[in-house]
Each structure stands twice: as C-alpha cells, then as structure tokens.
Amino acid sequence: MTRRRVLSLQRAGRIIRQGNTNEKVHIYRYVTKGTFDTYMWQTVEQKQKFISQIFTSKSPVRVADDIDPTALSFAEIKALSTGNPHIKEKMELDMEVSKLKLIKSSFMSQIYDLEDKVVKFYPKQIAEIAARIKSLEKDIETAKQYPKAEDKFNTMTIDGFGYFEKEKAGNALIERCKKMTSEEPVNIGDYRGFSMELSFDSFQKLFYVTLVGCLSHKVELGTDVFGNIQRIDNALDGFEKRLEFEKEKLANTNTQYETAKVEAKRAFPQEAELQEKTKRLAAVEALLKMDKKDDNVIDTDVSDAEVPQQKREYAMSR
C-alpha cells in the first residue's frame, strides 16, 4: 500500500500528522536577535510573499519572480551573528531593488508595446477607418439615388429577370437559394443600385445576400418571403447609422493615438528611488567587504604571533 502524504502537513513535521496521539499540540517558533535566524526567517517570508502573490493575483506587475538564491558569505554570517546592522540593511535593499527592477521591467514592456502601437497599429487603424468612411459615404450616395419607393416595390433583378412585385421577388430569392450547389459567393442580380451576391454558410446552415458597392454589406436571409426583402431594405437604409458609428470610432482611435504618444514618452516614475537604493546597496556591500578585510588582517596578525610561541614550545620539548 502506498502511503500518501498531504503536503500541508509536511511543514509541521510529525506534530500534526496521523499517528500523533495528542489531541492538541502547541507549536512554538523561536527567533534570537542578532543571529542567523534573521536571514532564515526573511527567506521564509520572501517565499511566502511570492506564493501569496501567485494565489491572490494582487501583484502590481505582470511577472512574478522567486527570490534570488544568493548565499551569504562567511563574513556576512559572522557579522549577522554579532548584530551588524549592515546585514539587515543589505537584505532589505536586496529585496527592494529586486522589486523595483521587476516593476521597471513590466513598465518598460508596456512602454515598448505603446511605442509599437504608435508606429504601426494606430496609424494603420486610422487609415483603414478613414478609407471605410469614404467608401461608406459613396454607398450612401448610391442608395440615395435609388430610394425605397413608398407606393410601389423597387425592381429586383435575379438571374436576369426583373421582379416588380415584392412577393414575387421574395419567392424568386428563396428559389435561388435552393439552387445553390457551392458555398462560394455567386452574383445573382442587383437591387437599388447594388449588385447582389448569394452565399451559403455550411457551418451555420444559413444563406446570405451581400450588397456590393464600394463596401460589401452582408445580410442574413431567412425563410419569410417578405422578411428577406425587408432585411435588405433595412441594410440599405442603415448606412447613415453605420457612418456615424465609423466617425465616432475614428475620433476615439485618434484620441487613443494621441494618448499613446504621450504615455510612450513617460519615464519610469520610481527611477530615482531605484537609483538611490541601488547606490546605497553598493555602498553597504562595500562596507561589508571592508569588514571582511579587517577580519583577514586580524587573523594574519594572530597567526604571525603564534609562530614564535610554537617554535619555543618545540625547542623546550627537545
């Protein structure tokens, strides 16, 4: 039988695992000031922050990095055990600088994305919308030349035959759908100044009529004779609303474009703090190295002093 261990129980050892006969247990955690405990608990704290960052999704940046596996030197451990305040400051600065670098990396990624949009995306989108507006304006002029008649039906041509009655035109359109043998669009005639293309979507099992002018205007067909004609008329009469929508979209895109150009020039807002703490970190590391050199000098002096004593002991033993 394979024994399965619950990961959440591993942290407290055998205290709260199955097999402990005590109903209640007390878990004590001891920390001694000015010892290596400080570094150990800080490592645990930093790992827990990383785990919480992943599980809660409250990170101020898009990327989460685990702690840097930097080991303390022997001199730093000794300084920590003697209560050297530079060790604590170094560890705090290490975390703060790493965090600021991570935030800056995410910030710069957003800046590069904005720069790319300023150079490529927005100009292309603005040009496309502007071209669509011009084409739509031309289609509106065409539709105005062939307005919907109030007292009679506008002639619809299907496969070369002209239909002057709405019902007959609707029936002819449905019959033409039944003759479709391919999904490829087929030109079937014209209506109110626009040519009509018939197509079939095999996935959705639907027929479409596309009114072709400067732009293509797709209309879904149904089974109702009069309803299909009404849908086509509604599409032609809805050009004005589409034009308003495109103009509003162009204005919004231009606003986004101008905003992006300004945002792309922004500097990292915490750059001064990052530089200051990086500089201070370098200074603290230099102080720790000086402490290490002083220790080496002391060790050398002690070794030199021990040599004559060893010689005297050797001479006396002879």
Automatic annotation (TrEMBL):
InterPro entries: P-loop_NTPase (IPR027417). Residues 229-267 form a coiled coil. The keyword Coiled coil applies. The keyword Coiled coil applies. Residues 309-318 have a biased composition (Basic and acidic residues). SUPFAM superfamilies: P-loop containing nucleoside triphosphate hydrolases. Keywords: Coiled coil. Residues 299-318 are annotated as: Disordered. This is Helicase. It comes from Ructibacterium gallinarum.
